[in-house]
């Protein structure tokens, strides 16, 4: 029995780079038949971006386009419009992430697509909400982060490094793709009731803002009382009228920080993150594991509120505990006492951790050829009765004939499309 959740769902993928492809790749891994439309001759921009070999597609492309079919198509030509129209008439989901107005200009707006196929769900990714004063800005990953509160609340709050800082995580790109996926799956469920597809609009800004929800919580609190007890600036620093940056302090009411370990001078990631919970029993266990049992009777430390007022003393003392141990030794000691703790792991450490090659967390895909095997991040959740099959990425236009035949075109028509520039670049004319 095929238990793929999206078996039988047809997706036309008119997206490129990262935000859209991350969404459609997940749909493919969940069993959907995804046809990726790429410009003849060049394809998705990421094919040739940050390449490790000029003759191979980049890992950027490979990690976002597994298990798709590639149709080389210039949808601006008359034949290209006819082909895209046929695909849309037969698909369940159409996804695009072109700049605002581009699909309308091409002739495939939501209104047009809905008339062509009322059951088709139309997913779109744009930089900002339609109502936003920034709606016409060209959006990249950092643009989403700096306008959604991520950058202004990330980084150090004082000194020369007190600058808005971009997260290493793709909050504006892949995160947006995951948010759109949620919307598309909701639309599929809705279609079961209504019989019609709907328009799913996902902005990069809103996806990023959703992950900054706790910062809007902090803003509400700041507006009410004028300070934030969990922040390093409390109690002696000054707060403005906006949520400041807070270094590595944990974002909720517990006291967390990143500490240097003994090899920090030669290993930039020999650090550990330690959290002191607010509960009395949890704090007692942590004190015993750290050897700080005097804190249990000291009024400066023996309540959570008192600890908020004496953060620097706490950080300084835990730092002394960690500095003569490796991050793994600290983790081993404190985790046995139930203390929330973890080593800071580099990408190399993560990708060489064999326990993560469990069929979903990290997966190996055999692309063949000069690329060979590569590693990517798999489906981020597991289903008890379904295991995704992670297949290779398509070559540019590698499924063009197959896709065209499946929607009724003859061999003669397919050959003419290649000659007239619809599915292959027009041959260059010799200079006279």
UniProtKB/TrEMBL annotation:
One Pfam assignment: CoA_transf_3
InterPro entries the UniProt entry points to: CoA-transferase_III_domain, CoA-Trfase_fam_III, CoA-Trfase_III_dom3_sf, CoA-Trfase_III_dom_1_sf, Formyl_CoA_transfer
Gene Ontology MF terms: formyl-CoA transferase activity
Keywords: Transferase
Highest taxon listed in the record's lineage: Bacteria
Keyword flag Manganese: no
Keyword flag Transferase: yes
NCBIfam families listed in its UniProt record: oxalate_frc, PRK05398.1
Name used for this protein in its record: Formyl-CoA:oxalate CoA-transferase
Organism: Paramuribaculum intestinale
């Amino acid at each position: 029995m095929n238990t793929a959740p999206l078996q039988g769902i047809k997706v036309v993928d008119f997206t490129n780079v990262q935000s859209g492809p991350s969404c459609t790749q997940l749909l493919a891994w969940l069993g959907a038949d995804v046809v990726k439309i790429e410009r003849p001759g060049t394809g998705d921009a990421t094919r040739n971006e940050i390449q490790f070999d000029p003759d191979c597609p980049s890992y950027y492309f490979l990690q976002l386009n597994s298990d798709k079919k590639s149709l080389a198509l210039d949808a601006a030509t008359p034949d290209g419009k006819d082909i895209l129209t046929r695909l849309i008439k037969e698909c369940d989901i159409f996804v695009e992430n072109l700049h605002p107005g581009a699909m309308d200009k091409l002739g495939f707006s939501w209104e047009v697509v809905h008339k062509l196929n009322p059951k088709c769900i139309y997913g779109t990714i744009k930089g900002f909400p339609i109502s936003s004063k920034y709606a016409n800005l060209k959006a990249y990953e950092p643009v989403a982060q700096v306008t959604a509160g991520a950058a202004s609340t990330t980084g150090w709050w004082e000194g020369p490094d007190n600058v808005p800082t971009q997260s290493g995580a793709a909050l504006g790109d892949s995160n947006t793709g995951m948010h759109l996926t949620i919307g598309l799956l909701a639309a599929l469920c809705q279609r079961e009731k209504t019989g019609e597809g709907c328009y799913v609009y996902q902005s990069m800004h809103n996806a990023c803002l959703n992950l900054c929800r706790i910062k809007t919580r902090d803003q509400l609190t700041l507006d009410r009382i004028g300070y934030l007890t969990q922040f390093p600036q409390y109690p002696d620093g000054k707060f403005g009228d906006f949520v400041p940056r807070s270094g590595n302090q944990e974002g909720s009411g517990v006291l967390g920080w990143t500490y240097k370990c003994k090899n920090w001078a030669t290993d930039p990631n020999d650090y550990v993150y330690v959290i002191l919970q607010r509960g009395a029993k949890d704090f007692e266990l942590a004190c015993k594991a750290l050897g700080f049992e005097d804190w249990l009777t000291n009024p400066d430390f023996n309540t959570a509120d008192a600890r908020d007022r004496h953060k620097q003393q706490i950080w300084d003392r835990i730092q002394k505990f960690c500095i003569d141990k490796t991050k793994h030794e600290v983790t081993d000691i404190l985790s046995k006492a139930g203390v929330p703790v973890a080593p800071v792991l580099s990408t190399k450490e993560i990708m060489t951790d064999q326990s993560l090659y469990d069929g979903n967390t990290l997966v190996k895909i055999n692309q063949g050829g000069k690329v060979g095997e590569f590693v990517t991040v798999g489906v981020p959740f597991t289903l008890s009765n379904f295991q995704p099959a992670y297949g290779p990425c398509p070559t540019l236009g590698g499924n063009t004939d197959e896709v065209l035949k499946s929607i009724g075109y003859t061999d003669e028509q397919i050959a003419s499309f290649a000659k007239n520039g619809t599915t292959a670049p027009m041959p260059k004319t010799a200079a006279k």
